[in-house]
Amino acid sequence: MSGTISVNSNVTETIQSLLPGSKVIKLRGYSGGNENYSNAKQPVGKWKDEAGLTSEEIEKVLSCQHWIGATIPTGRIVIDVDNADEGLLLRDLLEAESVAHHTIKTPNGFQFIFSKRDEAKISQVAKFYSAVGIRIDTKPPLSGYIVWPTKNTEGRYIISQSFEELDELPEYLKPVWNSSNTRDYVFPIPLKARGSRNNTLYDFARRLRVCGVPDEILSQALGLIYTHFVYDKTDFPQSELNALVKSVLKLEVSKSIRFEEYSKTESGTVASIPYPFNAVGNSLYMFQKKVKRNGDNEEKNIMVARHVPYIKRELHNMEQSQVFYEIKWEDKGRTVTELVPAGALATKKEMMPLADKGFPCNDINARLLIHYFDTVLAFSEIPRGKMVERLGHVKNNFAHPLLVKGFEILPSGQGEKQLLEGFQVSGTIEGWRDMVFNKVKDYPRVLFLVLSSFASVLLHDLKVDPFIVDIASSTSQGKTTALRVAASVWGTQQLINEFNATKVSIERKAAFLNSFPLLLDDSRKADERLLQSFVYTFSGGRSKGRGSLSGTQREFTWNNIMITTGEVSLTDYAAKAGGVAARIVSLTDSPFDGVDHSFFSELYQALETNYGSVGLEFLRKYQERKSELLPSFHKAREHYMKKAQANEVLTRLSLYYAAVHFTGRLLKVLMNFDIDLTLLDKLFDEIARENKEIDKPKQLLEELLQDLDADREAIYYEYRPKHQVKAICKAGVLYLTPAYLRAFLGPELKITRSEWRKRGFTFSFDAKGKTVDYQQIKHAGKNFQVIPLNQEIVKDLGFNFDVDAAG
What we know:
single chain, Prim-pol fold, 27 helices, 36% helix, 5 domains
């Protein structure tokens, strides 16, 4: 071995002498003001496809404070030890055993270069235990690169270079098991604590045995640990080591019994039960070691559970830092599969609810089952995957049950599972278009409903907030039929929900559907007291914040369209809530005009066999061309914004109409649907003309005047009313009392009075530099603070409250 090699020697020659055939690549380093170590190690450009740097290019790169990297060539393997103390132990071991290798010091530890010419495959892994207890990272041939020591890399230099031919990577230095899976376990080398070293080494040796390390390698590794990592051998003689090795080798590998009959994983591999657990029939047992008086060890096989559970998959939630395990067990010939959070396999409290589903846990065996699952996770290769708990836009992906790639949709509750089952496909796109859509496309309200079902999945990309489409008319006018047509875009009528649900239930369904429409039938079944608040909650796209014993609960989010039906419009349930009208597209009147029984019969028959396919194809084609098509949305938005004529509520509604109109255009472009989009224009004009809710301040004033007109005895003319004074009529002017306004308007009082004043329904007065809508008047010898109404507005609305009219 030579001494330390200067980093100022010829870099190219040094790299080729240690890693013959390596390619030199450019790394970011601390160039351009970068101070982050992790970023400094990142390559610049497409290093895999580009040629390696020449000596001249290397000097130029280094002069700009960049670093360089050296790829791992064929015939070489690098073992990286990130712990400096363990690296020193390994260096001393290799030197003492005369293993030819190269050594590089890194800021965190050491890198060891060996020959790798045998055919045994070694994967690129991190933080794996080797058989001598050193935790290693591996960089096999043609797998990545290492940062090469130069004048720019502080704390990184070549310690030694072997002038002999490199030795193959020793078997005892190959990866055995992932230490990340056994975070609670640490093999404490060097072994210093007297009295417990025998047990510590036995426990480590048992783990090597369970992991399948061959006898000769296990014996060699234990010998090396004893020789190099046990400094004081006074109370740990060689004879004890020999007895320990003999005892470990007696542990039968067959005790890792395979249950091939029923434990095949999805990838076709066979799950195994790690020692000390084993299967007897379909039950789980565990070996317990007992030391007899004569010193011999005796093992007793005790029953843990009546079934043998195993972990089928480890799934990582893409939206939040959560790990789930899919567990499986056999129960009287029935295979049971459950998805559980990681905590359910780690704590008794969370495991016990599984007993209701037939899982073999109870107060007595829960601790052993937790130990069993921990052992399985430590010593088994569990297939890993990604999952989401809901549909629609999730991170940078879109989740449709029949259009998922790279992850799975696994709903957390039974209600969500029922919705998921509703996403099915039957019939053809042409069949749905000809027999379903073409029958309803000439009915503007139904057309709007159906296009809204498509549009729901576009809101995220269009940056449009959630909103509600409500169709209201008298009974037996085809509202539920229209809702069934909207549901058929994505699947069966199982997607339609009843309105008689709790607020939390509807929130969770909205969150699960996420981008897909939430379909609710018959609002009269709902609790009227909750309707107004839920309109606001849904349009906000986030569930109500709720507390828990440990903090706040997770808040659900969504960005979709709610499509509802009812005999009374949702806006009528919240007549005094001005913001409701701006969140609901209210489609009143019969959805189908002039149709007979045969029309519905034919439509229902078509819906039985045609559903789901059109939505699936629409998603495919839209995702392929959305970057090309999305910019044209602004045309539809500007079109309806002009029609809104600066009306605040209509301006909000215009965005919703634009989204639905744009969706209709996409169906024409992508799928050649014949749609008359002028019907939507006419519908907007009709709603703007007929729905008083779009001018909520004016509507509230009209309702207030109607109330006064019906209760003239509450108006103070010449004589004071016997009961409440709602208003005063003096000299042809109607004055409202603050108490009456407060009672009539409720929580809308402040905003409504402000709007009335701005629009001239009431007047503005100066009160010590502050603009107000009230004044002091004297009537019948007493002073009153009142709000005068503009009599021109009162007359325009068709009311007359003067004395003659009152008489």
